[in-house]
Amino acid sequence: MSALSKPVEEHVPDVSHALEYLSASRLSCWQQCRRKHYFRYIARIPSGSTSALHLGKVVHAVLQRFNHWRWSKEKHQFEELRLVLDEAWDRELQEKPVDWKDDKTALDTREKAWALIDAYVSSGLINEDDSIAGIEVRLDAELEGLPPLMGILDLVHGDRRIVDYKTAAKSPSGGCAELVHSTQLGVYAILYRHCTGEKECGLELHHLVKTKVPKVHVTRMEPVSDEDITNTIELMHRHVEAVKSGDYTCSPSFMCAGCEYLAECKAWRGAAA
């Protein structure tokens, strides 16, 4: 047999980790770019944190503690949140360092995180009398023909309202927040209904906007429709099929400039390379 006719051993990537479970973040990454999903969840190439991701994680951690205080009726001073922020800042940096442009950038980002917390707590959007059913609630569901579904809900009110926090550079425009985050909303509704046997009474997206003067934008939505639930489940099936078939199609867009896998994508020679 000649070298040209010799069968080539094809390297098939191990997709078991990518299909260990499904989540809103995994599905959204796949929708954004299948090749990015490959790098993150199949090849599992480590990526560093960015200032925006770090800020978002710190703000989430502070709001989590704030909500725990509200839930337990624990007395606290607003200034104590600053200590919580400092602890979260250092903890997140230890877990995933950030390559800051310079010390001033790090300091400015830290102050921006605090300004967002201040704006949110002072916004008047928080009703201290609201009952809280859960904070950072992990929910799991087994759906027929699919890997396990998992999600963590930022806040669930006693009246069955689901709240998700987001940090953003600008407010969502044109009422498109519900569409942009439809996959996440569908996943959360499926999880909530599966685990409680009840239907959510509504969902809210709380955007903490990183403008020069920070502001808060709240999008309130009705319960997810049955049609959207069906579409979300169909999306999960398509996702699983694509991962199993090795569909790592790239989706070039202006977002590529900020992708942590830009270098790997530009050097792409296929999954077997």
Description:
It is built from nine helices and five strands. It has 273 residues and is α+β, with helices and mostly antiparallel strands. It has one domain: Lambda Exonuclease, Chain A, CATH 3.90.320. The protein has a five-stranded mixed beta sheet, with helices on both faces. Strand 1 and strand 2 form a beta hairpin. It is globular and about 55 Å long.
N/C terminus separation: 25 Å
Give the tally of β-strands: 5
Structural class: alpha+beta
Rg calc: 21 Å
Helix content: 40-55%
Number of helices: 9
Major sheet strand order: 1-2-3-4-5
CATH class descriptor: Alpha Beta
Rough outline: globular
Fraction of residues in β-strands: 15-25%
User: How many domains is the backbone divided into?
Assistant: 1
Helices and strands, in order, run as HHHHHEEEHHEEHH
Low-confidence stretches: 1-10
Mean pLDDT: 92
Give the CATH architecture: Alpha-Beta Complex
Domain PD-(D/E)XK endonuclease-like: 22-265
Organism: Rubritalea halochordaticola
Protein name: PD-(D/E)XK endonuclease-like domain-containing protein
